[in-house]
Structures are given as structure tokens and as C-alpha cells.
């Protein structure tokens, strides 16, 4: 699967022909994998105006959540291979196979641009009784299954972080699924769940505003966006072997979209990723801008999938072995 995508990247690089004048002739549809207000949606809407300007046409943004990203991924893959429908996606499809969610991952698509990556935090409401990560873990261990964790379904960021933590300590929680980090965090603030692992981009503003508290960043060290929030390894040193780890955000199309259309989209988003408004938002939300295209993007996706799926396998969270799916151990 990855071999075929590598060949496609090579062919695109060799051809590098100017895009046909008729593309784009009309508006383009950008399908966001998660609901409004979540991390993926925030990144998509930040780059969308600059991408419209670079592409020379309107990009209609459609939120299509569900199935930990499987519904939107299938939707884009079922659309005509003409470049008029693309995916604003996150990391989730790279886990769909091992989680038994879907047989479509980014190896079946073409990465127009890996826009950036993020850092996750463990978030609670500001009025929560849990003042530190140790407080939360103590409560979980004292009351197995009683503490409620906001989730986005199998293969989502919260469940993946939960699986990694469970390899470092006892972590018997009840996961409550929502259609994206935005709805999940809203539910958490409403008292429906006790805590939620989430991308820092979805939580940073509310943490700074004092309506939410971050107990830890899922990173080996603190980050500039929330410098006073401790690293998760301060409490769980065993997490170090999985880090750095985090979500990523990108633009993807069907693998069989014509090469000239891929090149037009690639050029547009490479330009948009240098827009000052987009760069400022990414920095303020604690994200790292990558602006990665071509074979480099394909290699990044493969490595991320290897590291994460085998971590899930080793913690017992995977439903299907990565080996069965042809994913090599890193």
C-alpha cells in the first residue's frame, strides 16, 4: 500500500506539469474530520482563507464527524477523484485498522500537506476536585471504572492516550464517546465527564481563561503555550518511551486524483501554510507547523503509524495486530 503511494509521489514529482487551466473551475469542498470547535476544525478554519486565496476559489468547509474519523474518510474516498473534495484530517485513520474501525487509512490516500502537529493535555473543569495528575490517578485507582473520561471513540486521541497511560499505571476509567474534542470538552464543562485528554489547540484558550485546568501536557517537557503545566513524565516517568507523541493535522485527497490537480492543491496549501494568521494561531495553540509534502509526508505518516499502532499492541489496546496489517515494528 505504502509502496504504491511512494510511486505516486515519484510520478508527481517527475511530471510537475502545470495544472490544467480548468481546475479549479468551481468551489471546492473541504471535509473536516471532526465537529466544530475541536482541534482539527480550528486548524482547518485557520488555514482555509489563505488556501482559498492561493487556490483562487472558495473552499466550503463541511464538518462530518463520526466513527473516529472513519465516516469523513470514507466520504472523501467515495467522492469523484477530481480534487473537488478533500479531507481536513487528523491522525485517526492511521489507527483505524488496529482498532477494527475501518480498513481505510492514509496509505490509501495522497497527503497534500501535513500542516502541523500538536501536543495533548489532560484537561479537567476549573472547579474539579483534581488539582494535579496524581490526584486524578489516585481517584481512578481507588475507584476502578467510576471516573468518567471524555472520548472520541476507538482510535481517537483520548482513547489512544488512555491506552498509553494504561501501560504506565492502572487506568480503569469509563470512556464516554462524543463526536469530536469540541463537543467532548463542552460536555466535560457541563459535568457529564470528569476529565478528557485533548489536543492543546482545543483547550489552550479555555485554560488561559480559567474555565478549564490542564493537569499535564503529554510531552517530555512543558510547552511554551502553557509553560506552567507540568510534563506527564513528572508523574509517570514510564510514559517517556512513547514521547514525543501527539496529534497531527493535514490535507488529503483520494490517491487516484490526477497528478496535475494534486500539484495545484499542494502548491496552494504550501503557500497557505506560510500565512501569518495561520502561523500565529498554530503558535498560540501550541502546535508545531510542519508544512510537509511529497515523499517526506508519506514517510512521516508511515513512521507515526508504526510507533503508535505497536504501542497500542504492546498495551493490549489493539483489536487487530499491526503485524496482521503489514505494519512493521519500528
TrEMBL record:
<dbReference type="Pfam" id="PF03401">
    <property type="entry name" value="TctC"/>
</dbReference>
<dbReference type="InterPro" id="IPR042100">
    <property type="entry name" value="Bug_dom1"/>
</dbReference>
<comment type="similarity">
    <text>Belongs to the UPF0065 (bug) family.</text>
</comment>
<keyword id="KW-0732">Signal</keyword>
<feature type="signal peptide">
    <location>
        <begin position="1"/>
        <end position="21"/>
    </location>
</feature>
<protein>
    <submittedName>
        <fullName>Tricarboxylate transport protein TctC</fullName>
    </submittedName>
</protein>
<dbReference type="InterPro" id="IPR005064">
    <property type="entry name" value="BUG"/>
</dbReference>
Amino acid at each position: 500500500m505504502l509502496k504504491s503511494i511512494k510511486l505516486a509521489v515519484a510520478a508527481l514529482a517527475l511530471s510537475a506539469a502545470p495544472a490544467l487551466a480548468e481546475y479549479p473551475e468551481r468551489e471546492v469542498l473541504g471535509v473536516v474530520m471532526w465537529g466544530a470547535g475541536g482541534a482539527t476544525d480550528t486548524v482547518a478554519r485557520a488555514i482555509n482563507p489563505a488556501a482559498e486565496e492561493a487556490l483562487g476559489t472558495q473552499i466550503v468547509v463541511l464538518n462530518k464527524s463520526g466513527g473516529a474519523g472513519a465516516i469523513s474518510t470514507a466520504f472523501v474516498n467515495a467522492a469523484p477523484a477530481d480534487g473537488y473534495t478533500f479531507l481536513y484530517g487528523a491522525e485517526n485513520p492511521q489507527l483505524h485498522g488496529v482498532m477494527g474501525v475501518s480498513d481505510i487509512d492514509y496509505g490509501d490516500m495522497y497527503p497534500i500537506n501535513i500542516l502541523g502537529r500538536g501536543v495533548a493535555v489532560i484537561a479537567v473543569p476549573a472547579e474539579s476536585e483534581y488539582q494535579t495528575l496524581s490526584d486524578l490517578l489516585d481517584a481512578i485507582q481507588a475507584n476502578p471504572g467510576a471516573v468518567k473520561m471524555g472520548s472520541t471513540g476507538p482510535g481517537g486521541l483520548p482513547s489512544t492516550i488512555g491506552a498509553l497511560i494504561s501501560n504506565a499505571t492502572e487506568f480503569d476509567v469509563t470512556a464516554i464517546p462524543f463526536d469530536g474534542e469540541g463537543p467532548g470538552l463542552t460536555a466535560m464543562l457541563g459535568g457529564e465527564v470528569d476529565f478528557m485528554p485533548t489536543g492543546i489547540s482545543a483547550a489552550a484558550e479555555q485554560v488561559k481563561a480559567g474555565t478549564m485546568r490542564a493537569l499535564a501536557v503529554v510531552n517530555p517537557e512543558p510547552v511554551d503555550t502553557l509553560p506552567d503545566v507540568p510534563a506527564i513524565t513528572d508523574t509517570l516517568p514510564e510514559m517517556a518511551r512513547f514521547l514525543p507523541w501527539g496529534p497531527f493535522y493535514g490535507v488529503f485527497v483520494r490517491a487516484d486524483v490526477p497528478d496535475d490537480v494534486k500539484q495545484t492543491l499542494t502548491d496552494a496549501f504550501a503557500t497557505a501554510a506560510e500565512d501569518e494568521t495561520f502561523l500565529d494561531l498554530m503558535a498560540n495553540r501550541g502546535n508545531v507547523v510542519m508544512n510537509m509534502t511529497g515523499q517526506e509526508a508519506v514517510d512521516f505518516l508511515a513512521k507515526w503509524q508504526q510507533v503508535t499502532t505497536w504501542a497500542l499492541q504492546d498495551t493490549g489496546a489493539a483489536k487487530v495486530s499491526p503485524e496482521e496489517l503489514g505494519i512493521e515494528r519500528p
